[in-house]
Design goal:
43% of the residues lie in helices and 0% in strands. The chain has one domain. The protein has helices at 7-21, 51-61, 69-76. The protein has 3 helices and no strands. It is mostly helical.
C-alpha cells in the first residue's frame, strides 16, 4: 500500500476542503482558456493576479477613495 505523503494529500486536498468550508467555489483550470471570457478571466498564462476580480475587491474595500485611485493602483502593480 503506497504512503499518502504526497503534496496532493497533505497540502492541496486539505486546502481545497478549507476553502470550501469558507464558502469559496472550486474551479478546475486544467483545460483553461485565456482572454476576457476565459476560464479564470486571465488575459495570459503569465498574468498572476485576476485583475477584474482584484479591481472589484479593491473598490469594495476602499469605497471612500476617489474613483481614479483604484486604476492608478492597478497600473502600478506588476503584471
Amino acid at each position: 500500500m503506497p504512503l499518502a505523503y504526497t503534496e496532493d494529500q497533505i497540502v492541496e486536498l486539505p486546502a481545497i476542503g478549507l476553502f470550501a468550508k469558507l464558502g469559496w467555489t472550486r474551479v478546475s483550470a486544467l483545460k483553461k482558456t485565456f482572454g476576457a471570457t476565459g476560464t479564470l478571466l486571465r488575459e495570459t498564462k503569465g498574468q498572476v493576479a485576476l485583475v477584474s476580480q482584484l479591481h472589484a475587491a479593491l473598490e469594495q474595500l476602499n469605497s471612500a477613495l476617489p474613483p481614479e485611485a483604484i486604476p492608478a493602483a492597478l497600473d502600478d502593480m506588476p503584471r
